[in-house]
Each structure stands twice: as C-alpha cells, then as structure tokens.
Write a structure and sequence with these properties.
Strand 1 and strand 2 form a beta hairpin. The protein is globular and about 30 Å long. It has 110 residues and is α+β, with helices and mostly antiparallel strands. The chain is built from 1 helix and 7 strands; from the N terminus they run E-E-E-E-E-E-E-H.
C-alpha cells in the first residue's frame, strides 16, 4: 500500500487560542505529519502512528484538530495544493483525516 500523501497551504495553525501562523502548511509524507510556518520552518512533526486527528464538533467545517507530540493544534484548512481553486476547506479536512487514518493503519510495514 502506498504512503498517504497530503499537502495543504494557507493553513491557520493555532495552539491554545494562540495563532502560530495564518498561512502555514500541513504535509504528510514518508509516514510523518509536519506542521510548518509560512516560511517553511517546522512548528511540530511526528510519525503518523502517534498523531491523533479529528473533526471538532463545535467549529466550522474547514477545521480539524490534531494532537502531535501531546500538543493540541487547531487547523483551519483552506485549499489543497494539488486541488483546483474551488476545492473547499471541508474537502481538505476530509482528505487530511483520511490521510492520517490510513497512515496510522498502515504502520505495520513489512
């Protein structure tokens, strides 16, 4: 099974009601999740096996929650890097959650 790949740009990344970046990046590659600033500096990263991701019930459709190395982040996803302009934040959240879940279940590599 191929590694899940996901890239989103223009992502607002928040931690404890504090905005870390308004135009960050979320990348999933080589079995790792990376949260990056708009300049490409790493905010946090971890193997997908240790990442928890979900859709918060109390927020907008374009938001996802990720717990990376014990730290909770709120991600407001815009458009996907490889998607057309009309791709919504809701579709980006759905693809993000699918990529994390499939990466977590694909941990047992032989």
């Amino acid at each position: 099974m191929a590694e899940p790949e996901f890239t989103a740009t223009g992502v607002r990344i928040e931690r404890s009601l504090r905005s870390l970046t308004r135009a960050g990046q979320v990348k999933i590659r080589d079995g790792r999740l990376e949260l990056l600033t708009s300049y490409g500096r790493e905010i946090d990263s971890a193997p997908l096996g240790s990442v928890q991701a979900s859709k918060p019930w109390f927020s907008g459709r374009d938001r996802a929650r990720a717990t990376v190395n014990g730290t909770r982040y709120l991600l407001t996803l815009g458009r996907l890097e490889d998607a057309p302009e009309e791709a919504s934040g809701e579709a980006a959240v759905r693809r993000f959650l699918e990529a994390v879940r499939s990466g977590r279940h694909g941990d047992a590599r032989g």
